[in-house]
Amino acid sequence: GDSVTQMEGPVTLSEEAFLTINCTYTATGYPSLFWYVQYPGEGLQLLLKATKADDKGSNKGFEATYRKETTSFHLEKGSVQVSDSAVYFCALSGTNTGNQFYFGTGTSLTVIP
Amino acid sequence: ETGVTQSPTHLIKTRGQQVTLRCSSQSGHNTVSWYQQALGQGPQFIFQYYREEENGRGNFPPRFSGLQFPNYSSELNVNALELDDSALYLCASSSGTGSYYEQYFGPGTRLTVT
């Protein structure tokens, strides 16, 4: 079945460091891929998405490229800020499962000044 | 534009009891999905409703049931509560059932079963 494997956390970075959170997926067909962020005490917020191979999603300095050849959708940011501290979830929505989302286990990021 | 809202925020129930959680979808959205998020885990899909009909179900027992109303709001009902049902329950709405539609999440209902 469809699934997402996400880099284990927690991750601690200094402010202005480069961030990469790895995400790989298993799916039949051509899924859509998403990154969501969950700040402490809040619900999930959509960060970015990509709906076909080679698409790059971007938002608030974060980027992720849909790589079908490596079944990956890694999240990157060139310079993190303290306000980026949160839990990040990779998710997919498969072509055979409609709008049902499969989430990774989440990666906790803490950015220290 | 009003976002997804959920009620109540927190709930404490005893094992064996029944609970109803409520969700109002974002304006213009006709699809509602429910997820269970255990502590430290990613959300797990429970089921989805599209135009008042169930449109997909995850690996949850029949004691998890739901409804969607003509205004697209939704309820999640859980019967015969078990300790393992303690979790954050998230509702999400979207404007369709295609895989490319993003889902917009509410803040969740924290259920504690004692």
Class from secondary-structure proportions of chain A: mainly beta
User: Care to count the β-strands of chain A?
Assistant: 12
Number of strands of chain B: 11
What is the H/E string of chain A?
A: EEEEEEEEEEEE
- Main pleated-sheet profile of chain B: 7 strands, mixed
Number of helices of chain A: 0
Overall shape of chain A = globular
- Helical amount among residues of chain B, as a percent range? under 10%
Gap between N and C termini of chain B, in Å?
A: 37 Å
Q: Can you summarize the main beta sheet of chain A?
A: 6 strands, mixed
Mean pLDDT over the residues of chain B? 94
- Quote the beta fraction of chain A: over 45%
N-to-C CA distance of chain A: 41 Å
Low-confidence sequence ranges of chain A: none
* Strand residue content of chain B: over 45%
Characterize the overall form of chain B: globular
Helix amount of chain A: under 10%
Counted by DSSP, the helix tally of chain B is 0
Mean pLDDT of chain A: 93
Explained architecture:
The complex is a heterodimer of chains A (113) and B (114). Chain A has 113 residues and is an all-beta fold. Chain A is built from no helices and twelve strands. Chain B starts with a strand and ends with a strand. In chain B, the strands form two sheets. In chain B, strands 2, 4, 5, 6, 9, 10 and 11 form a seven-stranded mixed beta sheet that branches. With 114 residues, chain B is mainly β. The interface between A and B is medium-sized, with 28 and 30 residues.
Write the layout of secondary structure elements.
The complex is a heterodimer of chains A (113) and B (114).
Chain A: E1 3-6, E2 11-14, E3 19-21, E4 23-26, E5 32-38, E6 44-50, E7 56-59, E8 62-65, E9 75-77, E10 86-93, E11 101-103, E12 107-112
Chain B: E1 5-7, E2 10-13, E3 19-24, E4 31-37, E5 44-50, E6 53-57, E7 64-68, E8 74-78, E9 87-94, E10 104-105, E11 109-113
